[in-house]
Specification:
This is Copper oxidase. The protein has 307 residues and is an alpha+beta fold. The chain has 5 helices and 13 strands. The longest helix has 31 residues. The chain is flat.
Length: 307
Amino acid sequence: MVKTVSIAALVCALSVSGVSAKEFQEHKNMMNHGDGHLMDMDGGMVMGQNTDTLPGGCDKIAGTKELTVHAGHKYSEKFPGTMWAFDQQEYQFEPCTKLTVHFINDDEIRHQWMMHGLPKYLYPKGMFHLEVSGPGSVSGTLILPPGDKTYLVHCDIAQHMEKGMKAQLKVGKGSEDLPSIPGLTASVFPDDYSGKPFSAEAFEAQEAAARVAAAALEASASQPKAQSGDTVAAADDSFLSGVSVVGLAIGVLVAPLLAKRFKGMSVGEVIATVFEWISQAIGFAVNIISKLLKKLSSKKAIPLPDK
Ligand SMILES: [Cu+2]
């Protein structure tokens, strides 16, 4: 009997300790797996750490900065319709800054601070990634690339970004803003909390207004471009030779800049960078063509099915 009671007491004590909140854990003694990948068996991880290799185009480290990021449910409370968020939605640093990020998870679940779009010859898959499971902190360092660009930062756990855990990091002046950043930029598809049933007419009107606005914006941004486009279409025969002459001229002008950009990089890194540029250029061209096709072909938006 005494034995049974004591076993019951033990089971109770164990289950209670299992349910109670995890203690805050500083993940400081992680195992280094090489290539900037550090992790421990308690849910702390750093990937893409780079403390000493200058990205191509950086002559020196422009400055050393530290950033403390909190992640948690409570930061989402001020943004309707979200569930998780970082404590800040936008960061800005000078190009070539050596940045140490202290990532603090205030929740009992797993969160990440994952930055995308970095040069792939230096950061595996173009990513810098911090992760903590449960309450705790982890720190990692990277060196930001040169140039003005806006980088996506998010938590990649399923639905965490879609439910608010999304931010942007601007290097220099940044490039275009990213959509759906809580409190900062509009969604691509705005949420509707009106409670009204779906109306195909209202949806079409909204889409049409958005298309008119987008077309007006595009027209105002690219008036000279449209004219040169007409000239190209008219003078189709001389198109190729014209392009090659322009290409040659650009090549001559750009070569010294490229030499500077590739200074100190190995042949492999140079090739990897060039291929990255080519793939970006192709992606860009495909994107523009598909947008054009869409604009030409889609008169009507596809209506959503009725419930
Ligand atoms: Cu998360």
